[in-house]
Design goal:
The chain has 659 residues and is α+β, with helices and mostly antiparallel strands. The protein is 50% helix and 13% strand.
Amino acid sequence: MGHPPFDGGRPLRALGAHRLSTGDLDSLALGSLDSGIIRRLARSEISRRRIAFRAVLDLLREQHPRLGPLLPVDEVWDLLVEIERQDAAAARAVLDRPLAGAWAARLLRRLRGLTQEDVPLWVEVGHLHAMAAAAAVRAGSSIELRVPLRRGFVHLPAVGHARLGSPEPWDTAVVRTVAAEIDVVGPTRRIRLRRDEQDFRVVRPAGDPPGGTGAPAPDDGSWWPVHVAGPVGLVVEDCDPYRMSGRAAEPHRLPPARTDRWGRLLADSAAVARAGHPDLAAGVDAVISAVVPLPAAARFRSYSSTSGDAIGSVEMSEPHDALDGAAMLAHELRHAVLGMLLHVVGDLVDPAAPVRPRYAPWRDDPRPPRGMLHGVYAFFGVADFWRVQRGLSVGDDAMLGHFEFALWRAAVCDTAADLLRDPALSAIGRRFLTGLLTTAQAWLSEPVPFEAARLAALVTADTRALWRAHHLRPAPAAVERLADAWLTGGEPDAVTVPTRQVPDRDARALDTRAGLARLWLSDRDELRRIERDGPGCGYRHASRADCALVAGDLVTARARYEARLVDVADDRRALVGLGLALRDDTAAGRVLRERPELVYAVAVAVAVARAGRRPDPGALAGWLAPVTDTDTDTDTDTADEPAHGEADERLAVPPARSA
C-alpha cells in the first residue's frame, strides 16, 4: 500500500520520519492546540496504522495460519495495493479509519500470543478481506471476494453492514461487484445494492428472487448503512465489530429516532466549539472522525473514552445537551493528542520504573503514572473549555461553568504537582508536565463567584478524603495501640502511624456529592425534591445529609451524619461528610478530612473490642489530632494502562438547559 510506501512487500522509496521540534512539544505542553502541530500528529497516526498493517502481514507470512475458505493474505494485500493505485481516496476511506487501527493492534497482540480471543483467528484475519472488499466497492472496482460472515453479518467498513443470517456463528459470504451494482451473497440469503455516489441502497432485499427493476427496494432490515452525523461528518459507529476498546462487539443498531438525536447533539456540540473554542473545533475536525454511541448516563456523570489503538474514535454516552457533548469532545481530543504524541516521541514514563499508583481526583481507584498523565492532560482540556465557556454562558449555565473551571483547575494543579515528584517520569515527561502545570497555575488567580468556589473546594476535599478512607490502611499494630489507649482513657501513644496503600476494588461513586453540588447550582428545586424523596434513588450512595451539606446547612448536615454513624459506624462516606460539616478550625474536622482512614480504622477496632459499642467519631477524631502519618509502602497490584495505550477517565460535566 502506498502509505507507508510498500507494494506487496517491495519498498518503493525511502520511508520518511514524523518529527516534532522542541518548540512543538513545548507548545503542546503549555496547552496550545496549534492546528499545524495537530495535523502533523494526525498524519503520523495514519502512518503508524499503515505500519501496523504491514506488521500484521509479516507475522501472518511467518505463522501461516489456516484461513479456511478465505483467499491467501498476500493476494488480498495485492488487491488493496491495486485499489489504492486506482483510487487512493477510496482506499484511504477504509484503511485510515481509527477502527482499522483497532483491528490491526488487536490482531498483532493475538499473533504475538499476548491475548486470547473467542473469535476464530481466520475470522479475525478475514477482516482484512472485508476491508479490501469495502475499498473495492467504494472505488467501483470489479471483484469477487469471499469475506467473513460474523454471527450473520457481513461488515464492510465505511460502506455498511449486510444482515444475511446464518445457521453458524462463523461463516463466509461473497462480495461481488460489477460497475455500480454490489451483490452480497451468504449461505442462504443475498442482497443486491446499487451505488449512488457514496451511498448504497438496496435494490433486491434478502430472499428476493434474481432480477429486479433497479428501483429502491422496501427496507427489510437486511442492509444497515453507515450513519454520518449530518454536517459535522462524524461517523456514528454502532455496528463495527472493533468499535469497543479491548473486546469484540456485536452490532447494536440505533433506532432512527436515536440516530437523529445523536446527529443533532453532535452538530450542536460542534457548533458550541466553533462559536467559542476555534482551536478545539479545528482539532476535533482534524482528529476525531467517529463516535461510538453509548446509552445516556445519569445527569452529571457523562462518560467518554479513547483507545490508543483507535485514536480518532470516541466512545461516549449520549450527551445530555450541546455543552455536555462539547466538553466530552474537549476531554477526548486531549486524550487523542497525547496518544498521538506518545506514538511519535515515545513514552513519557519510564516503563522499567516501579509503579506507584496515586490519587487522581477524577477516578475512584489509584492510578499509575501513565494513567495520571493522560488524566491531567485530558482534564486540563476540560478546565480550559470551562474557563472560556463560563464567560459565554448566562444564568445557571454560567455558574456551573465557574464551578467546573474552579474544580478542574485545582485538580490539574494538585495532580500535576504530585506526579512531578514521581521518579518514573522521563525527562520529556517532566518537561511536558511542567508546562501544563505552569499554565494551570496561572489560572488560579482568575476570580470565581463565591458559591462556585465554595462547592469546588468542598468537592476537592471530599473526593480526596473518600479516596484515602478507601485505599489507605494504617499499620494494624499502631491501630490496636491507639484503640487500647482510647479504651483506657489514655493519650495516643503512637505519635506516628505508618500507612500503606491497599486498593479497595469496591470503591464506587466517590464523586456523588459533586453531582449534588452541580444540582444545587443548576436546579435547587430538584435538589430539594431529591432530599425530600430520598436522594439514593437518583444518586448512588447519596443521603439527605449530603443534600444539606452542599446547600451549606452545616448544622443539619452534621446532625444527620452523626445520626447515621450511630447506626452504621463503618460508613466511610458519612465519616468524611461529618468532617466536611464540622467547622474548618476544629481539630476533629481537620482530622476527619485529612486522616479519615485513621479515624475509621481506630473506630472499627474500638467497636470490636467493645462488642459493637461505637465511639463518638467527632470525639475520636479530635483525640487523634496529635497523630501524624508516614506513607511507608504502596501495593503495586493496581493495573497499569493497557499495553495499547487505552485511556479511560471519568468525566462529569453539567448540562446546558439553554442549549
